[in-house]
Every structure is written in C-alpha cells, then in structure tokens.
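job 3f2a | input accepted
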Amino acid sequence: MGLPIDGIRSGLREEGLGCGLPMCFIELGYTDEKMEVEGILREVLGKSIKRGWVCIRGIPDPLACGIGTLVRGLSQLQRYVEVETDGLHRDPSWTHTVDRWIVDYQHESAFNYGALRSSDTIRLAAVSLSEADQALGVCRELNCVKYIKAPKGSRKKWLDLVSNFERVRLY
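job 3f2a | predicted structure (171 res):
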C-alpha cells in the first residue's frame, strides 16, 4: 500500500526556521496516485543533496499508514526530516524521530503541543492582532518557536505584538 503523492520536488524553504534552506519537498495529498515508500526514497535520493533536509507536507493525518516508515527511511538515508501538519490530528508515536515539526496552531487541537521541542515550530495563521495575541498567550509556555505570517502593510503593529513574547518570529 502506497502513500498518496502529489509530487516530489527540490526548492528553497520560504518560511520558518529553515527559510532560505535548500530542501526536498514530498507533497502528500488527496490523490489517486500512490507511491510505495521505496519509490519515494529513490526519488528523494535523486533530488536532494547529501545530508540535506526533506520536508513532508500536505499530510491530512500524520497517523496515516506508511508515514512513520517514510520518516525512518529518510533518516536511514541520512536526511534531516521536517514534517508539516495542520494540528487537527493527534501527534504520532514517532513524533521524536522527526528532526523538526511545523504544526499549525488550532484553538481546538488534538495535537499535543506540549510534546514540541525547542527545534519545532507552531505556525500561527494570524487573521487579526487580537487573535494572534490570544494564540500567543496560550502558547507562551511552550518551548518551541512560534511564528506568524503577518499580512503585508501593518508590519509595525505586528512587530509591537511579537516583541512582547519570547521565541516568536514574524514573516
């Protein structure tokens, strides 16, 4: 049984801690095209540099069958693994086998944010300053990095907000 693959490509990380970092992206999604883990690993080997980063994203559910096997395979190929998830699903038992998590903040989340480490990130989709302030207040005690992708134009107001919190970045 394979994983639903939307594509595998190389590029630069455009946000977060790895911003500007060369990375291989494995895009999972809702597609009929499936690829076995071995095939994915072979394609990643052809697209990434030695000891490079690989980002697995578009994961509807990190508990889906095969993703943990893919993470272990990438680690055996000496790749650093970053996983992006929407924060709506429970964190998997293999959480700490990933080098870096990027988890979207959800007010009602099944993901255990407390399991995130200092190398991990909570991504806040800020609609307004007050919503961002509330979310940052909830996440204040977490050891991970928090970042906000702020709307263009009002950066000064956003900068004032994030300067009140530790380990928060603005993009």
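job 3f2a | Residues 3-170 form a domain with the TIM Barrel fold (CATH 3.20.20.70).
job 3f2a | closed
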